[in-house]
Amino acid sequence: MTPPPAAEAPPVAGTPAEAPLAAEPPAPSARDERGGRRRLVSALWPPRVTRAQLVVALLLFGLGLGLAIQVSSTSDNSALRGARQEDLVRILDELDDRTQRLEDEKARLEKQRSELESSSDQAEEARKQTQEKERQLGILAGTVAAEGPGITLSVGDPTGAVESDMLLDAIQELRAAGAEAIQVNGVRVVADSYFTGSGDDMRIDGTQVAAPYVFKVIGKPEDLEPALNIPGGVVQTLEKEQAAVTVERSPKIVVDALRPAKRPDYSQSSSQ
């Protein structure tokens, strides 16, 4: 006879029952990995930009552009920043003088308009103004003699070292300072004048001139003389070449050298 199976002993109090083992998660397959990458790429591209993000991006772009322009402007003004105080003062004075001349010209033109509008004989008034304008243009063109306050610049050249470009620099500096009429050794200097040669063969508009070179200049003496005497300017440049330079102010300078009026070959008035 087969004996009955022995009864299992009940668990002892205080001893935990043996827990069932948890199943290990299955390893991800290659297909699942590829699907995950596709989902990640589709989530990142194409980017989804909201309206708020677009506005912020435009504001940042505008700010960057403004900073770049400011840096560029600051770099362009570096030359003035490094200038000496006396040079800055001179530049400001020249700007003030040019502004004042423009204001005076504006006031003169407004006065002429007022006179034309109020004159009982407008034809006669227009004729007078035309003659005055012709005289002014004649002074600028060198076809009319002129007189007024100004300076006399004398340049001696005992060593023959003065070049034509040095005299031309003096003319340009005088014009920038407001010179209205200039003659050098009896030659009227106008807008199309040119200087060539040096030493014993110095020429102005083809006319030979010899040292000392005497500039007679009509303009405001308080502007003309400082323009020549600035540090590193015309006077110092000539003196480095052993030239003897003097500048004298005068209440009356006479510029009487004349140039013949030339008829233009191609240009003609466009006014009707």
Highlighted features:
single chain; 272 residues; alpha+beta; five-stranded antiparallel beta sheet; three-stranded antiparallel beta sheet; 8 helices
Structure overview:
The chain is of the alpha+beta class and 272 residues long. Helices cover 47% and strands 16% of the residues. It contains 8 helices and 8 strands; from the N terminus they run αααααβαββββββααβ. It has helices spanning 30-44, 51-76, 78-81, 85-118, 122-141, 164-176, 221-228, 234-240, and strands at 146-156, 181-184, 187-189, 195-196, 202-204, 207-209, 213-218, 244-255. The strands form 2 sheets. It has a 5-stranded antiparallel beta sheet. Strand 2 and strand 3 (187-189) form a beta hairpin. Helix 4 packs antiparallel against helix 5. It is elongated, with a radius of gyration of 45 Å. The N and C termini lie far apart (149 Å).
